[in-house]
C-alpha cells in the first residue's frame, strides 16, 4: 500500500511530466496560459445544462455565486481568447482538472492535463492535422492506438433528414447521448408507439382541464405551448425508412480512413447534405498525410466521441493503450468552432485542440 511519501513522490513526478509536455508545446510557439481552478458555474450550466452537475464539483460563494472546480481547460481558454486573444493564436497549459467518477469509481477524480489549442481561420484542415501530429509526437514511442471521428458528418446527416426543424433540433441536441438519440429517431420514424400517457393527453379536447393542478415551475401558458408543440410533432409524417437507413449506415462506418472516406462518399450520393462535411474529412486526410501520419492504418469511426466530447462539433480523436481497456484515453481532442460562437458574443474563430494525461503516460511507461 502506497505511503504518504510515495503518493507525494508520484504526484511530483506527474507534475514534472505535465510541465515537460507543456514545454514541448511551448517550443512550437504556443503561449502558456493558466486559467483559474474555480470557474463560474453559470457558463458551464448554460452550455451543457444540469447534466454537468453529475460530472463536476460544484460549490458556492457569497460574492461570486455558484462555482465549479475546473472540469477541463477548453472553456476557460476559449473565453480568454475570445475576450483578449489575437489571431492566429496557439496556447498550452498544464494543471489539474476535477471530474466526478460515480460510474467509474476506480478512476481518478483529480488529475493533471497538458493541452495544446489552436485558434486559426487560415486552413482548418491543416490546423486539425497540426494538433493531431503534435499530440502524437508528444506521446513518444508508446504503442498507442489512434482513433478518430467527425461529429460534423453526423450533424450534417441530421440536417439532411426530411423532417421538421423541431425534430432535427432535438436529434442534434442528443447526438452526444446515443441512447436518447436512438429512442428519438425510432419514435420519429414511427417504429415505437407514442407513450400512453402522452397519447391520452394529445387526444384530450381540453388537456389543461383534464390534467392535475399546476404545481410546478411552468405556468398554464407554458404548458399549453408545450402541448401545442407535442401535437404538431404527432401530426408530422414519420421519417422515412430510407433516411433512417442512411443515418444508420453512417453510424456504422468503422474502417481505416481511406475506406471510410470511400464509404461516406457512396452514402453522400443518396444523402447530399453530408457532402461538404465529407469534403472537409478528405482535406483533413491530405493534411494528416502531409504531416507524416500514416492514414492507411488510421482508424475512423463515425460514432466516435458521442459519449464524452460534448462541445466538439467536427474532427475528434483519441489515443488508447493497446490491451488496457480499463484505462481512459491517454489523449483526446477535436474541433470546437461552435463553442467559440457561443462564448464569443458575436465573434467566432475556427478552433481545435487536444489534451494529454501525463499520469497515464508515466503509468504506461513504467509497465513496459
The biggest sheet, with number of strands, parallel, antiparallel or mixed sense and barrel status, is: 9 strands, mixed
Say which CATH homologous superfamily of the domain at 1-119 and 355-368 is assigned: Bira Bifunctional Protein, Domain 2
Radius of gyration: 23 Å
Relative helix content: 40-55%
Q: Return the structural class.
A: alpha+beta
Top keywords for this entry?
368 residues; BirA Bifunctional Protein, domain 2; 15 helices; 46% helix; globular
Give a structural overview.
46% of the residues lie in helices and 18% in strands. The strands form 2 sheets. Strands 1-5-6-12-11-10-7-9-8 form a 9-stranded mixed β-sheet, sandwiched between helices. Strands 2-4-3 form a 3-stranded antiparallel β-sheet. The mean pLDDT is 87. The chain is an alpha+beta fold. A hairpin with a 3-residue loop joins strand 3 (58-61) and strand 4. The radius of gyration is 23 Å and the shape is globular.
